[in-house]
Amino acid sequence: MTTVTGPIPYRIPKRRGPVLTFIVQQPLGAIGLVAIVAMVLASVFAEVVAPYDPLEVNYAAILAAPSADYWFGTDAFGRDILSRVIYGARTALAVGVLSSLIGCVLGTLLGTASAYFGSTTDLVIQRFVDIMLAFPIVVLALVVVAALGKNVIGGIDVNLIIAISIPIVPKVARVARSAALSVRQMPYIDAARAAGFSHSRIVMRHMIPNIMAPVLILFTAFIAQAILLEASLSFLGLGVTEPTAAWGLMLSGNSADFYEQAPWVIIFPGLAISFAVFAFNLFGDSLRDWLDPKLKI
User: Fold this and answer.
1) Cα 129 to Cα 8, 111, 147, 276, 284, distances in angstroms
2) pLDDT category of residue 297 using cuts at 50, 70 and 90
3) What are phi and psi of 173, to 5 degrees?
4) Distance of alpha carbon 265 from alpha carbon 203, whole angstroms
5) What percentage of the chain exceeds 70 in pLDDT?
6) I need a surface site. Which of 91, 213, 279, 284 has the fewest CB within 10 A?
7) For residue range 235-250, what is the model confidence (pLDDT) as tens digits?
8) 62-89 in b/e burial notation, b at 16+ Cβ within 10 A?
9) How does it sit in the membrane (predicted)?
10) Is 168:103 a contact under the CB 8 Å cutoff?
């Protein structure tokens, strides 16, 4: 029988990266992330992935059923629905990401400033937030987009992005204020004030970075809401206009007249909207569970 002499070598365990850790701990969130990445890649490389030009009209194949030539069928103008769904991902992601980003940035600045300055500033900002929260998000977006009109740049309506981002601001501001109130009581904030740092430096360098976890979760969640809201406004004729490929626009117009004869004209755009919203919600919920220490066992 042999005996082991000497110290037993210690092996340092390998540390997983944040992405791998998230995949292992949140498998459902990983599925949502994969779906989001697939959507982004399809929209970026739409010229390569899409089988046809989304604006190409084929009068010989009007309302053609799904087949080997047209996997998702064609619409009332003979345009390939699969190609328009792929290109529509560009519109949905551009509007969703930009709207959510603008709303979260403005809401974070507003909520953090409200918590930091307090007193009259906090009172005025919060009453303004309360007024904006009194309006349903769809109604507020409708009012803003109707008031601003259209300003299309590069196929994307800039005013539509602004209209969708405005209802996001008060919701983010309320959450950011709650998180910033606890950060304001930390000793390093008092130390920064004692050191003579400016208000803007304290807010930007010491407060906002420490409340980014809930803001990041809201950012992913509001992308899904922005995509759904863009589709709703486009369906009502207040969003993206023809001939731009957009999921909500594909559900409106002639599609409502031919849904019984050609149900694929509304099925596939509707599935695309549901798929995108589900993917972002799944990823956002998993990201919340992963970042929030209160929800960890």
Assistant:
1) 62, 9, 20, 29, 24
2) very low
3) -60, -40
4) 50
5) 89
6) 213
7) 877 777 777 788 888 8
8) ebbebeeebebbbbebbbbbbbbbbbbb
9) Multi-pass membrane protein
10) yes
- The count of C-alpha atoms lying within 13 angstroms of the C-alpha of 169, restricted to the half-sphere facing its C-beta, is 21
**240-278: string of b/e by CB count within 10 Å (b at 16+)?**
beeebbbbbbbbbbebeebeeebebbbebbbebbeebbe
Distance CA 144, CA 152 (A): 16
Per the CB < 8 A criterion, the answer to whether 281 and 224 are in contact is: yes
How many C-beta neighbours within 10 Å does residue 230 have? 29
CA–CA distance, 137 with 165 (Å, rounded to integer): 10
Amino acid at 42: A
DSSP secondary structure code for residue 210 in this structure: G
Structure token digits, residue 278: 């589900």
Q: Kindly tell me if the per-residue pLDDT of 12 is higher than 70.
A: no
Tokens of 222: 């509001």
User: In this structure, which amino acid lies at residue 196?
Assistant: G
Closest CA to 31 of 278, 292, 225: 278
Distinct helix (H) and strand (E) counts, the chain: 13, 2
Distance CA 222, CA 224 (A): 5
